[in-house]
Amino acid sequence: MKGVALGLELMLACTLAGCGLALPPVTLPAQVRLKIVARSPETYGIRLRIGEPHDYRVPADGRVTLDVPAYRAGCSVFLLGLVRLPNRSDPYTAKTVDLLTGGKPARQLSLKMVSALPVDTDGYHLLTLPPMAEP
């Protein structure tokens, strides 16, 4: 009988605890330098999809500076105040950078993937495209 009472008390405590939300801090605006290394980089375009989508033309030297606006990742949900449930709405890890060819997405990258690319002496992240991927 004591086990049943203890089980009921535990269930009541769990239902009263509920869920909680944690709002992450704002990520400040930044500039990301990206260089498209290809035979004809000017045939590409880049679309940044954080907030309002913004398209960038890639010049012949392949260097583009992306203006990343301030953003906030989605709220984290905590079940019973202890167990964090996964949240996949962070623009840093979501594929929000599109490499365009002919106006259509050819490759998608996240800001995390761009930041992991090798960097040249001028501070540009180098995205090297194989000849077969070029239009």
Can you give a write-up of this model?
The protein is an alpha+beta fold and 135 residues long. It is 16% helix and 36% strand. It has 2 helices and 10 strands; from the N terminus they run H-E-E-E-E-E-E-E-E-E-H-E. The protein has helices at residues 2-17, 111-115, and strands at residues 19-22, 30-37, 44-48, 54-57, 63-68, 76-79, 83-85, 97-101, 104-109, 125-128. Strand 3 and strand 4 form a beta hairpin. The longest helix is centred in the N-terminal third of the chain and has 16 residues, at 2-17. The protein starts with a helix and ends in a 7-residue tail after the last strand. The model has no long low-confidence stretch (mean pLDDT 82).
Mean pLDDT: 82
- The structural class is alpha+beta
Please, how many helices?
2
Distance between the termini: 75 Å
What spatial order of strands do you see in the largest sheet? Answer: 4-3-8-9
Beta content? 35-45%
Number of extended strands: 10
Major sheet attributes = 4 strands, antiparallel
